[in-house]
Amino acid sequence: MNDSTLTARRTTRARAATAAGSPDRAEPPKRRDAFFDNAKYLAIVLVATGHAWEPLRSGSRTVTALYTLVYAFHMPAFIVISGYFSRTFDASPEKIRRLVTGVVVPYVVFETAYTYFTRWSSGVPDREISLLDPLYLTWFLGALFIWRLTTPIWRSLRWPLPTALTVAALASLTPSIGDDLDFQRVLQFLPHFVLGLCLRPEHFSLVRRWRVRLLAVPVLAGAVVFAYWAVPRMDYAWFFHRYAAQHFGVPAWYGPLMTLALFGCSLVLVACFLSWVPGRRTWFTTLGAGTLYGFVVQAAEHFGWAGQRWTHSPLGVITVSAVAAAVVTGLCTAPVRRVFRGVMEPGMAWAFRKGPPVAVPVRVGR
Length: 366
What we know:
The protein is an all-alpha fold and 366 residues long. It is 61% helix and 0% strand. The N and C termini lie far apart (57 Å).
């Protein structure tokens, strides 16, 4: 092979590489999956509605049953989806940067803001700002930070889900874990996150088949009936995953048993919920990127709306539910997201090194 032939081939390869790397030939960015945005929006509405029902539970077995049913699957659905989208987390500099800006910064900002809000709303002006004592829904951001950091560990295990269930079961009989970062919740909800890590696109396609959708209707109906039956017989606080078994005045061995039972229950209900989530783009698809409703819920409680007698009537419960859904929908809109983008999606390029991280020299011996 002569020099001219070699030169021609090198030139051809160089041109091909240049063309492949040119902006004009770059692959278009992937479109967001409408199904997951729809699922997040509908779950957000359920979370807001559940919080609105909370002060209406007293004296109403029906509201308590619906509240219990919603709490059985709305946070598990969020966490499963969060785990699914954390599958590619590899602790690279870019992923760490997104973790800090998208999770840590909002946690610190909202934990501080919630503290000042609580000082005003509850009349406790000396409440301390504590990053270890999450208020309201900030516990989820702290938990997501921990779960995502441990993703490489779960991805490397041979049996990640059984291991996570074992960890959750052990946590359920260990009351000494304490309240820092709501770590009991972090550990007890861990299997849902790990399940999300293990899922693949075909699993979500499976639950959206018409056979599954039709089966979901009687299953959800049965769940409503069971929740109504269980109201006077079971403490719905089990679904908060916030306490060890001893907190409920039962033997410790109830903890692992309830861990498995509640995980199975939430798994079935999440599948039923996802089966009816639209897969096409809808009017609320773009609203599924996030929500900021916590202040509004707490403010409403502060002004005593739940103390009005009419809100405890069937029409009142429906009205409260509709208002909660409308408020959270408004707070998911683009104008509100633009206002809070500096908090929820800060760039913070100034806070990170450019290029690969600098290795820290380690001196061994003298």
